[in-house]
Batch of 2 targets.
Target 1
Amino acid sequence: FMKRRKKWSRYPPGPASLPFVGTMFSIDFHKPHHSFSQLQKKFGNIFSLQNCWTNLVVLNGYKTVKEALVHKSEDFADRPYFPIYEHMGYGENSEGIVVARYGHVWKELRRFALSTLRNFGMGKKSLEERVVEEAGFLCSAVKSKEGKSFDIHVLLNNAVCNIICTIVFGDRFDYGDGTFKRLSQLVQDSLDQETGFLPQLLNAVPILVRIPGLPQKVFQGQRELMDFIDVVIDKHMKTWDPAHTRDLTDVFLKEMEKGKAAEENGFHYNNLRLVAVDLFTAGSETSSTTLRWALLYMLLHPEIQSKVQAEIDNVIGRERPPTMKDQASMPYTNAVIHEVQRYGDIAPVGLPHMTYRDTELQGFFIPKGTTIITNLSSVLKDETLWEKPQEFYPEHFLDTNGQFVKPEAFLPFSAGRRACPGEQLARMELFLFFTSLLQKFTFVLPEDQPRPREDGHFALTNSPHPYMLRALPR
Ligand code: HEM
């Protein structure tokens, strides 16, 4: 008992906790990374909070986050339990990947997703060819705006969402398709509904989730997204031919066929729908939001846009579609895309982790079961490591000879066991969509529009406020 008490005396410091709500009023849940940066100044790189009865520890700065996620990878690999997802079908033995507890089933499903993404050839087109093809559709849709002022948000969402659709369900949708419009909107709504004070409160006080009708009301978008996915999977199962693998759903169905052992590894129907919804939510909004930041920064920094276009003209020309091979010869474009990710800071607080066992970090004691927030924003803008952390400055990723370099503190995909398994795909999407667009168009701010805001709107991802642009054919 004395030993344990001694350990607790080394628990990280934090703001004063109120009865019942804990420190919830110390945080602006619509801009948590801003609140964290204030608290970091006061309490240091490791501080504690309390959401009602849930203990949280927030990790700040590159050194701290790396030490936890990479050097003590297993200690920090668990995820907290989220009661707010129960109504979607998440629960014991059905956890998908993103919110799954650390353990055997999560490992199996994560390995499955990674290898399926990697081997995506599946007979027909490679994933790269699919992204190139989709970039062509995206450019045609942009061209049809005839240089007039428009908001490119929906088109970018469509293009990126179609890549996930192809991976998971083997097909893309036309941008005008009514069902598809609904799907993109639902992915957005479902993310919006996860942020703010109420979802945090419901997670912290699960009994409230049992109030009849409440989850349906608060999370209606998530419910509808799940229904949508169920319909597509059902259709898929009816047309399944084990001899022809069309997509990730087919590979999963094949695993399910293997019987009881496979089921124990997590390959059952409910996990199929949850893995599908995980890939939709984790893999579409993230890439499309990054592209939205990319074009916003091009509007604000026309000289940078011109330099990217000069490199495209030089390496690819105006006609041939870009390929991933071009990336190695395009250090400036590559640096710009990396700087978009750093400065755009689209997952500022990552996803919550949880300690898998009692652990120590920089002399602090953190008990098993503590929710851990990795403040990725404080890494991407770590003042001790970046030359101009609060500016859009592609030179962060270039050496003195103009060659591409990647500083260690570039962690937009997080690190360690839970690091984003979609990183390769995301890199491909960002490079191919961005270069295809800038090869064909110059993006300018419409004369009647105000200068777009550089601060973001936080709803799990940090996304730009709506803005208009004109795409002038080159
Ligand atoms: C997890 C970032 C694109 C699938 C994550 C995490 C981050 C992240 C920060 C949390 C890691 C952690 O818990 O420490 C991004 C960014 C993207 C992107 C910035 C694009 C620019 C994608 C794509 C996919 C994807 C395209 C899927 C095809 C996932 C999954 C997880 C995840 C399944 C959960 C991993 C686990 O819990 O084991 N991502 N992501 N992401 N991401 Fe991504």
Target 2
Amino acid sequence: MPEIAFAGRSNVGKSSLLNLLTNRKKLARVSGSPGKTRTINFYIVNDAFRIVDLPGYGYAKVSKSTTENWGDMMETYFKNRDGLRKVVQLVDIRHKPSAQDVQMYEYLRHYGLDGIVVATKADKVSRNEMQKNIALIRKTLQLSKEDRVIAVSALKKTGYEELLCEIEKILEEEDAVYH
Ligand code: GDP
């Protein structure tokens, strides 16, 4: 089954987004204490594809050895997933992407899994700021014109249809290749 994975810093709003995408209220745990989810979770959507919830990275209080384990886990995951089609990178719309975000995106580019960035918590900025911040995200992650940045608010439930459209496109492209 094809897989679409989601990556981002702890507390970026990944669980909230995945709850929205999978239409289930309490599927992924929305954390009050960031940095605790250290396993990879899978959710099957409409019998059509799997959503892969990669553990959040970059929480300041995570120890070095935990960070190394995270890297090992990612490495193992990426190398053994035939079904993996894309990794959606999440960044908080309010902040300039961190060095780890940049590193993560470079990693995805290296594996050919890049192309979709979700700017989370879009309700927290004005329309004006939104454009400005998306430009900063584009610049910091060195996105190309083809790369998509989709502003999503899990709170206000906006932007996620656009993301689902992008995911559908990816799944269709695959159908065209394999059938
Ligand atoms: P995760 O650690 O990446 O899984 O992040 P969570 O989904 O647990 O969210 C972290 C915090 O951000 C929680 O306090 C959420 O309520 C909050 N949050 C998540 N998404 C949104 C959003 O779209 N808008 C706002 N305002 N807050 C959000």
